[in-house]
Amino acid sequence: MLIELDDLKQGAVERLAREEVLAVRVRHFIDEDIAARLSEQIMERGLQKYLNAPSIGRIGMVFYEAENQPPLIANYFESVFDNINELRKRCAPYVSPIDLLRCVLDEIWPAGAQLQTLYGRKMYV
C-alpha cells in the first residue's frame, strides 16, 4: 500500500515504521524541473558502482560494503564528509534532496532526524 501526500506528515512516517504501508510518496517534494536538473548534475560526473550490485550507481561507499573489515571500515568513516560534500556540490545551487528530507523529518518527527552515529563517528546519508 502507498500513501500519497502533498506534505510529509508524522502520521505517515509512523505508519511506514509500523509497516502498515510500504511507501510514502510526497507529491512535488522536489519540483520536477529542479529534479531533472539535479539528476543531470549528479550523473554528469559519473557514479561509483556497488560491489554487489554493479548496475546501481552511488556516490561514496555504503557501510555494509565494509564487510566488517577494519581497513574498509576506516576508509568508510574517513570519507563520510567528503561524500556528503560531493553530493552537495553536485546539487548546487539547489539543496541536496537528502538534506531537505532530513530537515523535514527533523521538524516532524518527535525525536528529530540526524546522521546515524556508529563507534562515535557520523555515518554517510
UniProtKB/TrEMBL annotation:
Native organism taxonomy: Bacteria, Pseudomonadati, Pseudomonadota, Gammaproteobacteria, Oceanospirillales
Full protein name: Uncharacterized protein
Superkingdom of the source species: Bacteria
